[in-house]
Design brief:
Elements lengths: L1 H27 L6 H8 L3 H7 L3 H23 L4 H21 L2 H5 L6 H19 L7 H21 L5 H23 L1
Helix pairs in contact: 1-2, 1-4, 4-5, 4-7, 5-9, 8-9
C-alpha cells in the first residue's frame, strides 16, 4: 500500500514537472528556461527534479513525444482515405500536434536545434510519408512543387501565428484553432 502512494506521488511530481516545463518552454523558450527555474516554480530542489529527469532535453523529449505520436496517428489514419478528406486529416493532424501541451511543439519551430536528435530524426522520417500522401491529392501539373508549397503554407501560417501572438502558448493555440479551417482550405487550393 505504501509503495502505491509513493508511486502516485512520484507520478504526480513528474507530471507537474512536465506541465511547468511545457508552460515555461512555450512562454520563455527552451534556451531561456533553466532547471533551476522549473524547480523554483515547483518549490522543489534541483536534485529532486533530476530524480525524475536527467536533463532539460529529456523533459523536452517527453513533451514532444505526444505531438509526434499525434502526427504519426494522423498520417496512419489518412492512408485510409483519398482526395480532400485525406489532405484534411493530414493537415488537421499536424495542426492538432501543435496544440499539445499548450503549444509545446512551437518550441521546435522557434528553437529547432533544441529538439533531441531522436525526435528530430523521427519527425524527418514521417515527412516523406506526408509528402507522398499529399502528393496523391495534388494535380499532376507541377505536383512536387504544389506539395512543397502546401507544406510551406502550413509552416508559414504557423510561423505568422507565433509571431503575432505573445510568447505565451495558450494564445497561440487559440489562434491556431481559429485559423484551422483557413489553413486547410489554403492547402486544398494549392494542391488543386
Amino acid at each position: 500500500m505504501n509503495s502505491d502512494i509513493t508511486k502516485d506521488k512520484e507520478t504526480g511530481t513528474r507530471q507537474r514537472i512536465l506541465d511547468v516545463s511545457a508552460r515555461f518552454f512555450a512562454d520563455r523558450g527552451f534556451s531561456n528556461t533553466s532547471i533551476r527555474d522549473i524547480a523554483a516554480e515547483l518549490e522543489i530542489a534541483n536534485p529532486s527534479l533530476y530524480y525524475h529527469f536527467h536533463s532539460k532535453a529529456e523533459i523536452l523529449a517527453e513533451l514532444l513525444a505526444e505531438p509526434l505520436k499525434r502526427v504519426e496517428l494522423a498520417v496512419s489514419d489518412a492512408e485510409q482515405f483519398t482526395g480532400d478528406e485525406r489532405t484534411k486529416r493530414i493537415i488537421g493532424g499536424l495542426l492538432d500536434a501543435l496544440e499539445v501541451h499548450s503549444g509545446i511543439a512551437i518550441t521546435g519551430f522557434r528553437e529547432n536545434d533544441a529538439i533531441p536528435t531522436a525526435y528530430s530524426e523521427l519527425a524527418r522520417g514521417i515527412q516523406p510519408m506526408i509528402v507522398s500522401l499529399l502528393g496523391g491529392n495534388a494535380t499532376t501539373d507541377n505536383r512536387d512543387l504544389r506539395v512543397t508549397m502546401a507544406i510551406g503554407a502550413v509552416e508559414a501560417a504557423v510561423t505568422d501565428l507565433m509571431r503575432s501572438t505573445s510568447a505565451d502558448g495558450e494564445p497561440f493555440v487559440e489562434k491556431l484553432r481559429a485559423s484551422r479551417s483557413v489553413i486547410i482550405e489554403c492547402v486544398l487550393k494549392i494542391l488543386h
